[in-house]
Structure formats: structure tokens, C-alpha cells
Amino acid sequence: MSKPVGSRRGIVVIDAAHTRRQIIERGQQDFWLARDHHGFFDLVWGVHPLADVVEPGEQRTVQKFSSRQLVIEGKTRSFSLPALLYPVNVLLSQLSLLFWLRKQVRQRAWLRVIYAADPIYCGLFGWTLARLTARPLIVFIPANYDELWAESRVLAYPRLFRSRAVEKLVMHFVFRRADMIVAVADSVYRLALRYGGEASRIMRGRHGKFIAKIHMSAPESRMLSRETADELGLPKAANYLLFVSRLIDLKLPQDAVRAMAKIIKERPDTVGIIAGDGERRGQLEALAAKLGAAPRIIFTGNLPQETLSILYSKSIILSPLTGMALIEAALAGSAIIAYDRDFQAEFLDHGNTGVIVPFRDTDAMASEAIALIDDPAVREEIGQAARQMALAFVDPVANGRTERIALTELIEHGTHREERFQRHLANALD
After folding, report:
1. How many CA atoms lie within 13 A of 379 on its CB side?
2. Helix crossing, 305-313 with 324-331: angle to 10°?
3. Staple partner for 310: which of 132, 139, 222, 337, CB 3.0–4.6 Å?
4. Which residues contact 41 (CB under 8 A, 6 or more apart)?
């Protein structure tokens, strides 16, 4: 850790959100390429410790993702044990991966930092690896897990931690020990404080760097051809409604389906689009059929980023609880209707850059969408304001400067201290 900051630097990213295959299928390579934090790190090792929960497989894999990135995908069933002993298999498999990583990281002094993409399982795995290798730990907070549980009874890792009490204990443990905590919204900042994170170690960052470059293009240049619409099975419609997310409980996709069904009932010339895939897809398709909207709600599965960028620009966006998709939609100049939760209510200014409705109120979401359908001028005004706001939010120059200062401090001092960071940032801006 005493090497000069200008020398070779690498980072280990622990992230259980997407596998390598999913990233390539969706054309989200820019999302992973941005893990180098605006070029601060020369090399990135991305680790998905639970890849076979999403995709079948028995062996740990190490694959090249780009000239500067490796992807390591771990398994929960690395050993030939009876199904009854699955919990034991998970534990042994994860320990095997952990100690293999320990050896690799300790042999490479240039791997300077461990980065966990959530404070629960990735945070626990990342903390253990950080302690075994004497590296600082950064923990990113992607959602306010307390709010999700209070309103929806949704766990972040239902297959691993089947108890809310266990997840809370893990967050207490991880937040108290992280060297830097990255919070992009007030709600997750408060979550970190609630679970013992020190305010001086919390950095108010932004994750706009993870946006695919195609989403920065001008909305008017994005054309939905009839050929593309036919490939997706999209009928002609006066208006499109779009929901983009993984189809898992955490993202509340059933609320988007319910709101779409209500809108379509009132405005039959409207088509709903559910873009994404996941374990709940079959149930959601059945729900659309039950609500009588199946012919007008299209499930496209995962889509390339270029196709998504086009659909954003042609649609009203329904966002029960999404992350990067919210920023992408704003960059497309879309009119967005989002729940009053988490990052969404802070990112969007109600009535100006978007519309905020009460959490889990699908009636309100549907009513606001119908109002936008009936008033194209307001819809366009909100969309244009959203794009201008989003362009400032993802400003790569300002965000890159902030990250470089914080990461340099972390490597030099082994921890992040907000007061030092603010002084360095003020000096950089002078």
C-alpha cells in the first residue's frame, strides 16, 4: 500500500447482479468497462461469486472480458454432494473461491482495492477477502433495503439469507468495517448511518459512469424502424409504455404490469413493453393474461442497449423501482413516472423532470400515464427537462475528478475520510 499512487493499480469488484453472458447478451459492455473508475485503475478483476444461481455450471471460470478486465465466476455447487447437503456445498464452494482469490490477490501487490457492489452478500464476501489480503474495502449501496422490506417484504438474497434479521446483522457488520461507503442518494446514506457506517467514511458519489455510450445520443436520432418493431413483436400503437429491469421481486415488476393493464383498459391503442428477464417472467406473463392485457403487453426478454435506447425515446417510462434504467430513460428525453422511493424521488423533480407517485400505488401510476398520453406538450416538456438534468448528472469530467480524489486518498491512507476528501476536492476545483 506504500507504492506511489501513479504506479500500476488494479481493483477487485465483487458483484452478483449480472453474469458475463448476461452482460454480452444485453450489450452492456460499457457497464463493466466503467469499473475502471474513469481510467483510475489499469486492471479490473470482476468476481461473481454465485454465477450458477443464475446459470447452470459446476466449475469456477476465469475469462478475459477486455484487454484490461478479467471475469471470475464462482459456483455454489462445486462439489459432488447430495442435494440435501446443498447449504454445505454452498459454504465449501464459496470458501474455496475465497481462498483461491486470497492467493491470487496476495501475489499481486498492484491489486489495491476490494469493491463490493452491495452491503449484504457481496459486502460480506468482499470484507473477508479484504481482511485476508490487507486491502481497503469499498462498499456501494444500490438500494434502501429497509424500505423495500417494510413495503414489499423482499429480501436481497432470499436463497442465501432467508431471514431479514440475518441480512440486518450482515449490514451492521459490513458498514461498520468498510473503509469507504459509496452512497448516491440521501435514502441510502441514511441506511449506512443506521447500520453503523461512519459519516466520515461515506462518499456521496454518482454512478452515471456505468451508462452505455449509446444512451448519450440525441433522442431525435433514435428511430424505431418497422423491422425492429416486427422483430420484437411490437404492434403499431399511438403510445408505448416501457418498463426496463430484471424480472425479480426486488424490482417490483408486477406493479408495472398492473399499471400497464389499467392504462391499456382506458387507452386501448397503447402497448406495454416489459424489457428484461428473470425468475418471475412466467408469473408476470400469467398476470398480464389474468388482467386481460396479454395481447397488448409484450415481454421482449433482454435487449441490446441500442434497441433499448430507441424504445426509451419512444415511450412513457413506468419505474416502480429501477436504477440505471432511470438515468438511461432520462437521457432519452423520456417522460418518467416513478415511485416515491430510494434514489428515484431524489433524481426526479416532481412535475419538472418527471412524475413521482406514492409507493405501490399502481392506480396513481396509471392515472399519471394517461394524463401524459392526453397532453403530448407536457410529456415533451418533462422529457426535455429530464434529459438536461441527466446530462449534468452523468458529467464524466466532474464525476471522474471526484472519484480520482477519493480513490487516491483511499490508497494513500487506507481509508476514506470525508473532511480530507472535501479539502482535496476544493483544491482541485480552484
Report:
1. 19
2. 60
3. 222
4. 9, 10, 11, 35, 112, 113
At residue 426 the predicted structure's pLDDT band, cuts being 50, 70 and 90, is low
Task: Name which of 341, 386, 387 is nearest 143 in CA terms.
Answer: 341
What's the CA gap between 385 and 70, in Å, rounded? 39
C-alpha cell belonging to residue 90: 454452498
Residues with Cβ < 8 Å from 77, sequence gap 6 or more? 52, 58, 86, 89, 90, 93
Inter-residue contact 30 to 66 (CB < 8 Å): no
- Distance from the first to the final alpha carbon of the chain: 29
CA dihedral 325, 327, 333, 339 (to 10 degrees): 70
For 42, 90, 197, 253, 410, the CA distances from 12, given in Å and listed in that order, are 12, 21, 22, 31, 15
Tens of pLDDT, residues 324-368: 899 999 999 999 999 998 789 889 999 999 999 999 999 999 999
C-alpha cell at 112: 489495491
Computed over its alpha carbons, how large is the radius of gyration of the chain? 22
Q: Are 178 and 199 in contact (CB under 8 A)?
A: no
- 341, 326 contact by CB (below 8 A): no
| Domains in the chain, CATH or no CATH each | 10-211+395-429 (3.40.50.2000), 214-393 (3.40.50.2000)
Q: Grid coordinates standing for 264?
A: 391499456
Lookup: cell for 27:
450489450
